[in-house]
Write a structure and sequence with these properties.
Elements lengths: L1 E5 L2 H17 L4 E4 L6 H8 L2 H4 L4 E4 L1 E3 L9 H8 L10 E3 L8 H14 L7 E5 L23 E6 L4 E6 L1 H6 L2 E6 L5 H8 L5 H6 L4 E6 H5 L3
The structure holds 6-phosphogluconic acid.
The site of 6-phosphogluconic acid (6PG) has 15 residues, from strand 4.
Length: 225
C-alpha cells in the first residue's frame, strides 16, 4: 500500500494538489473527482490556480447523489462552487451526472453517451474518498453496482441511505492511470486498518493491485482499530 501520512489535513491537501498538478504537467488530461467533504478545500485551491485553469482538462464527476444540482448534497454543485467558482475555463470540459432527468438509470445512460461522444478513452487520474463503511465513489458494500462490469456508469440504490446514487463503475475506476485516495479524520481509522489487513471492501476492490496513492492524515492513520 502506497501510504503517505500527513500531520494535518492541510498538509495532505497541499500534497494532493501538488501530485495532481505534476500529473497534469506530465500530460494528464482527463481527471475524475469525488464529492464528499474532504476534497472541498483542494478544489478551491485548484480553482484559484491560473496554471491549472490554463490546461485543457476534462473534469469528470466520479459519482453523484440523486438530488438537484443546487441541493447542498450535490457533488457537481459543490465542484461548481469550488473548482469552477470563476466559471469553467474556456479550454476545459466538465462531465457530470444530469440528475435533472429525474430517472437514475437514464442519467447513468446519458452520462455514458456523453463520455463516448467526448471521445474519453479512460481516466488519467481519479481522486477518491473513502466512507467509514469502506465505500468509495457510490460503490457501497453489498450493492449490485459493485458487480457491474459492462458499463461506464450505473445507477445504484443504497438501502442504508434510502436513496439513489449514480456512479462510475469499478472497472473504469480500476483502469485509471492513477488513483489518489484522500482519507482524513479519526473516523476513517478502523476502515483504513481493515483495508490494510486485506478486508474485502469496495475501496479495496477498486484499488488493490492497481497504482494507488493514499493521502492520509495522522488522525486516520493512528486511530486504526
Ligand atoms: C460522495 C462520494 C463518496 C465520498 C466518501 C468520503 O458523494 O459521498 O463521492 O465516495 O468520497 O464518502 O467522503 P468524505 O470526504 O466526506 O469523508
Amino acid at each position: 500500500m502506497n501510504l503517505r501520512i500527513f500531520d494535518s489535513v492541510d498538509d495532505l491537501l497541499h500534497a494532493a494538489a501538488r501530485t495532481l498538478q505534476q500529473r497534469v504537467e506530465g500530460g494528464a488530461r482527463t481527471i475524475a473527482i469525488s464529492g464528499g467533504s474532504t476534497p472541498k478545500p483542494l478544489y478551491e485551491q485548484l480553482g484559484r490556480s491560473d496554471a491549472m485553469r490554463a490546461m485543457p482538462i476534462t473534469w469528470v464527476v466520479v459519482d453523484e447523489r440523486y438530488v438537484p444540482i443546487d441541493d447542498p448534497q450535490s457533488n457537481a454543485g459543490m465542484i461548481q462552487a469550488t473548482l469552477f467558482a470563476g466559471g469553467i475555463p474556456a479550454g476545459q470540459r466538465f462531465l457530470r451526472f444530469q440528475t435533472e432527468l429525474g430517472d437514475p438509470a437514464r442519467t447513468a445512460a446519458e452520462f455514458e453517451r456523453e463520455w463516448k461522444a467526448a471521445g474519453i478513452a479512460g481516466l488519467d487520474v481519479v481522486l477518491l474518498g473513502m466512507g467509514d463503511d469502506g465505500h468509495t465513489a457510490s460503490l457501497f458494500p453489498g450493492t449490485d453496482a459493485l458487480a457491474v462490469e459492462d458499463r461506464i456508469a450505473t445507477a445504484v440504490h443504497v438501502a442504508r441511505l434510502d436513496s439513489w446514487r449514480v456512479t462510475l463503475t469499478r472497472p473504469v475506476l480500476r483502469a485509471a492511470g492513477l488513483r489518489m485516495v484522500l482519507a482524513a479524520g479519526e473516523k476513517k481509522g478502523p476502515v483504513l486498518e481493515q483495508v490494510r489487513a486485506g478486508a474485502d471492501l469496495p475501496i479495496a476492490a477498486v484499488t488493490r493491485g492497481v497504482e494507488t496513492w493514499w493521502f492520509v492524515d495522522r488522525a486516520a492513520a493512528s486511530n486504526a482499530a
